[in-house]
Amino acid sequence: MKTSYGLSISSGMARGSLTHLHEEDNRIQSIYISKQDVKTELERFYQACSYARRELEQSAQVLADMLGESQKFIIEPQILILQDSFFNNSICHHIESGPYSLEYATQKFREEVMSSFRSVEDAYLRERMQDIFSVIAIVLKYSRSDTLMTTLDAYRSSELQGSIVYANDIAPSELTLLLANGIVGAVTLETSPLSHTAILCKSLEIPLLTGVERPIQKNSLAILDTYKGTITVDPDAQMLELYEKRQQRFMKYKTQMVSSSFLHSDSDISLYGNVEIAAEAIHLKEYQAKGIGLLRSEFMVLQARSLPGFAEQREFMASILQKAGYISTTIRTLDVGSDKVAEFMDMTSEANPALGLRGIRYSLAHPEEFLIHLKAIVSLCELAPIQIMLPMVSMPWEVVKARQYLHQAIRELQAEGYHVPDSVPLGIMVETPACALGIERFAHLADFFSVGTNDLTQYIMASDRGNKCVGDLCSPYQPPVLELLQRIADASKSMAVPVSVCGETASDIFYLPLLHGMGYRSFSVRTSTIPEIRVVLSGIDSKRSRYLVEQALRCSSAEETIQLCDNFMAEILSAELFEYVMVNRTC
Q1: Which domain of life is it from (predicted)?
Q2: According to the model, what pLDDT value does residue 1 have?
Q3: Average pLDDT over residues 166-188
């Protein structure tokens, strides 16, 4: 029995045969080739690209069959890379100039991209570094004549059914085919938590563990437990028995969570789901979500080489509504800028992009794009109840101007024959200090508020949440953040403006009692967390949560607040349920 540890990306437990997805030898056997072999090496590259394209196209179709045609965009960037002249010419140039082997040529290209991708002229490649690396891996896989059977036919192998796969990394195209063939979990050496692979695993509730060196022999029985961050190969009888008991207990809690009703008088609590792609909308109905509280419309746009038109944007968002059962949906307009920039966007270099042209600022600076985007959103009113939400609002005039464009979009759609209402609810994200501190100025302009705690926290604390050096500062448990969140809740109540929380804090079950005590009753959360959040909220009464907030506001550090919340949760939950939420907290 051997246990390896890693970083949990997608929560869950699984038992199955451990399958090594592709066991390619990444060592370069030869650097140079003879001039006479250049033509053969180029042909090997072209043939590998052809096989790679077949895999990617089949993956895109499988994804479309699972989630809808518009979801092909997850795979299509890699197909476009294979067709990209910069990609092809660079590798061919390296093969010819050495002359080098294909393996060494791709390594040189990869090193070039890693060292200079931020300044490379091809904007598409600059924004697609991880996609490029995935494509290189797929091409190399198909360049080895002895591994061609680890291609499309291998994905159809019955051995994959019920298995846990291991690989250095898994491209979205590979994951799509693996999911279609019944894998129950995945373990990798390196997978980004923000990658498409991570998003798909979370959305489809497939356990994913990363940061794990290659486990011992393949085809061994393995237990994957991402709650604990472990993969155990060849478990002994005692380990298997513990796994079965723990899995049964967790499934019991999950079933109870899904079916749980609120036990106390706070029946006005509403739970919504945050959604980026159609896969995340699948479980909303099962988990009894009241609707989609945050549909991130920019996700598809950021994958595009040119601005998607009205029809393309409408189709993408409509596919999500269809998977969700056409429930009430709040769509956030493009939250672009800062670290979210697509190739087609006319973005000048900014010294501090996090404080630059982003969110509603970008939209108002590009009125033609904004109008097309608003028309695509409003047209969905034919399918479901729709609300629109503006990101990164700082000043009232931004809402006034956006509403003017919204009225224009409605008029144009009605003139074109769409059956849309004369008005659509328009709200704002409260995520800048200017908006939060001056929230009273927006009461007569916005139909609702939604607190974006992620950006709000980093702006209040003047610390980048992605910077490890100051990451501890950027905590929503910090006293200044608590004070401002309380002010927003109080002001919204006094002005009778509906308010919700859609940031990561709403998905943190240890933070929820604080929000509840402040007076928040509407939460938009990661879909997978809805069942446990429902159970936690059902165990909280207003008096106790209010007292918790009073204590928290007297804390002098985030650490004190965290300990206070941990103690509170231990008091209101049973010992077994507290264990469940504690281990799940890491995911």
Answers
A1: Bacteria
A2: 85
A3: 86
